[in-house]
Amino acid sequence: MLKMYYGIDQTEGGNDGDPTDINGANFNPQIYLSKVMKEKRLNELIDKEAEMVKQIRSLDSDMQTLVYENYNKFISATDTIRKMKTDFRRMEEEMDRLATNMDSIADFSAKISCTLQERREQISKLSGTHSLLKKLQFLFELPARLKKCIEMKAYGQAVRYYTKTRGVLEQYQHMPSFSSIHQDCQGIVQELRTKLREKFSDRESTARELAECVDLLLQLKEPPDQLCDEFLSHASKKLDEDLEVMQAQIRLHESPESFDDVTESDEVEADISPADRILKNLPVDILEYVDSSCNGFLSNICLVISSYKDLFVHRQSFQTGEHDQDTLEEIANSKLGEFVLVRMAQYFQCLEQRVQAEKNTVDNSMLVRALDRFYRRLEMVHNLLRHLNILERGGEIVNKCAKDRVDHYNDGLKKHFAECLTDIRQILCAPKVAGKQEATDLSDLLSTMQSSLNEQVRTVLSNLKAFISKDVTFSHTPFFPGSFCYDIVREELVVGFFKHTFQVATVSTVCS
Question: Where is the Exocyst complex component EXOC2/Sec5 N-terminal domain positioned along the sequence (predicted)?
Fold first, then answer.
C-alpha cells in the first residue's frame, strides 16, 4: 500500500530475482546471512552488524516522525472539515435572507415606479425646458460676454464661447430674435479677428503667442493657406533687412569712399550716433562678413522655418475645415519650400559676390575659415528642410571659390615664369663690360629658374592645403576632396602649368 501511495513500481529492484539483494523483493535473509558469514571476516561482520543496527534505528525514528506528522495532519483536516460545515450552513442562511431582501426591494421599486409613472414624463419635460432656457439665456448674453472677453484680452475664452454657439446661430439665423444676436456676434468676432491678426503680425510676439493666435484664427475658420502667406510675409521683413545689410557691406567693401559723405541730417534721421555710424561703415573682412550673415540671416531663417513648422505643419488644428490634414500639410510645406528657396537664392547671390572679391587675396587661411563656418551653419538649414538640397548649393559655392583661388595661383605662376624668362633674356642680352668676366652659363641660369619655380609651386600647394585641413567641415564631404585634389589642383594647376611651360618653350624654340 505504501508503494502504491508513493507511486513506486513494485518490479523495481527485483527483476533479477536475487535473494541476496537486501533491497529487492525476493530477498531471503537466511541465504543472505549464509553468504555474508562465508565471505566476510569477523571484524567485517561486527562492522556490518553495527551499520545495520544504526540503519534500523534511523528507519524507526523516521517511521515514528512520519506517523506523528500524518496524524497531526489528519486531526487538522478533521477540524477544517468540521468548520467548513458550520460556515457553509451560516452562508446558506445569509443567502436565503439576501434573496428575501432582494425580492422585497424589487416589489418596493415596482410600487414606486407605478406611483411616479405619470410624474416622470412631467419631470423630464421640465428638465428639458430648463436646459433650453439656460441655453437661450447664454445666447442672449453672448454678445456682452464676447465684448467683455475682448476688453479683458481673453481671446481664447471668446473663441470658445463663439465656437460653442456658432452652429445654433447659423441654423436659426432666419428667425428675427436669433438674427440680431447672430449679426452682433459676427461684428464682434470680426473685431476679434482683427485684434488676433494685429498680434499675429507683431514682431514682438513670442512663439507661444503666435501659436495661440494661429490656433484661434483656425478655430474661427480663417483660411490656413492665407495665414501661411501672412506669416511668411511678416517673416520676410526681417530677412530683407539682413540681406540689405549684407549688400551694404559688399558695396562698402568694393568702394569705401562712397560711404564717406554722410550728412548730419542722415544721422539724426537714422537715430544713430556718429561713432556707431563710423563703426558700422567700416569695411569688414570675409570672416566677419560670413559671421555676420550666419548670425543674422541664417539664424533668422532657421527660426522662421522652425516656427512655421510648429504653427502650420505639426498642428492638429488643420483637421478642421474643407481640406484634410495631409492636403493642408502639403500646401504648407510647398509654400515654405518656395519661400526658403527664394530667400536662400538671394543669400547665396550676396555671398558669392562677396567671396568673388577674395579670389585675389594672398592668404587662404581666413577665406577657408569663412567657408568652413558658412558650410557648418548651412547644415542647420539643410537639416530642417532636407528635400530642398540646400547643402548642395553651398557645396557649389565652396567648389567655385576653391577653383577661383587655384586659377589665381595659376595666373601667378605663369606671371612668375614670364618674369624669370625676362630676367634670363636681360642677362643674356646685356652688353659685356670690358675687363669684367660675367657668368652667363645657361645651365646655371636654368638651375636658378628651376629652383625659383619649384619654390613657387611648393608655396602655392602649401597654401592650398588649407582647403583640405582635418578641421574643415567640407573637406570630409564626398563632393569636395576628390574633385579639388585631382581635377582642380593636379590637372588644372600643376599639369596645366607644366603644359604652359612646354608651350612657351616650344614657341621660343621655333622663334629662335
Answer: 22-310
What is the full DSSP assignment across 280-335?
A: HTS---HHHHHHHHIIIIIHHHHHHHHHHIIIIIS-GGGGSSSS-HHHHHHHHHHH
255-314: per-residue pLDDT in tens? 765 555 544 444 444 454 444 444 455 557 888 889 988 998 999 899 888 888 887 877
Is residue 464 within 8 A of residue 489, CB to CB? The reply is yes
Rounded-to-integer distance, Cα 347 and Cα 250, Å = 12
> Which cell goes with 310?
510648429
Answer whether 406's CB lies under 8 Å from 466's CB. Answer: no
* Residue at grid coordinates 428575501: 100
**Residue 488, Cβ density class (10 Å: 0-12 exposed, 13-18 middle, ≥19 buried):** buried
Q: State how far Cα 482 lies from the chain centre.
A: 31
Q: Which amino acid type is present at position 37? A: M
Q: What number of other Cβ atoms are within 10 A of residue 223's Cβ?
A: 13
Do the beta carbons of residue 481 and residue 399 sit within 8 Å?
no
CB of 271 within 8 A of CB of 350?
Answer: no
Please write the tens of the pLDDT for every residue from 198-224.
877 777 776 577 777 878 887 888 888
Q: Which residue has the cell 581666413?
A: 366
Rg of the chain (C-alpha set): 51
Provide the 8-state DSSP code for 467: G
Given a contact cutoff of 8 angstroms between Cβ atoms, the answer to whether 317 and 218 are in contact is: yes
Q: For the range 355-361, what are the long-range contacts, defined as Cβ-Cβ under 8 Å and sequence gap of 24 or more?
A: 355/286, 355/397, 355/401, 355/404, 356/404, 357/250, 357/253, 357/254, 357/286, 358/286, 358/401, 359/401, 359/404, 359/405, 359/407, 359/408, 360/408
| Residue corresponding to grid cell 571484524 | 43
Q: Let me know: does 422 contact 508? Beta carbons within 8 Å.
A: no
Distance of CA 279 to the CA centre of its chain: 40
Q: How far, in Å, CA of 161 to CA of 184, rounded?
A: 14
Q: Which residues contact 310 (CB under 8 A, 6 or more apart)?
A: 207, 211
pLDDT recorded at residue 415: 92
